[in-house]
What we know:
GO biological process, one term: phospholipid biosynthetic process
Shape: globular
Radius of gyration: 17 Å
Order of helices and strands: HHHHHHHHH
Distance between the termini: 58 Å
Number of strands: 0
Membrane topology: Multi-pass membrane protein
GO cellular component, one term: plasma membrane
Family: Belongs to the PlsY family.
Protein name: Glycerol-3-phosphate acyltransferase
Largest sheet: none
Amino acid sequence: MTTLPPLVPMLVALIGGYLLGSVPVAVLVAGRRGVDPREVGDRNPGFWNVRERLGGRVAVPVFAGDMAKGVLAGLLGLLAGGAHMTGPGVVAGPSAPAAYLAVAAAMIGHAWPVFAGFRGGRSVLTFAGGIAVICPPAFVLALAVLAVTFLLTRSFAIGARAGVFAIPLLQLPFAPIGHVAATGALMCLIGLRFGQAALAARRT
């Protein structure tokens, strides 16, 4: 059986992940209602802004689509790297770098989409979708953290933040520390996007 050179899976993960992430789901969904989420509200083309402007029902496809971008990118990287996994479905071995690269590229595509003038969102749901592939047990536990926090605070936003921030800790029992550090690096991109949004808000 002929094996692909190591560079080829990484290029597939990088290019494929970026193109998947660049699909402007929020812009497409809101655009059908005559709204450009990049020009209203907090100007973030993502689930929360669409929900605030157009309601929860309209925002559901945005939620699903943005998360699906991370899932598909993670699967693309996993397959490009040879589909190596441990017992609970955690990405392992040579598949890990390709999967992480694909998810990172999808997050970058969501943040700076080539199909939407490089004006994108904050990549939180795309990150979550990627983690669902990279470490399914951590993703399920993060959902549990979200649910418990929501029950205690009655705030989905607070629950979502708690679930996302808990992911590296929840990943520790299932993956090497290097993978956990890579997850932290992905989260830094989210932090960068929130920082950029805060600076933009101060200028306006």
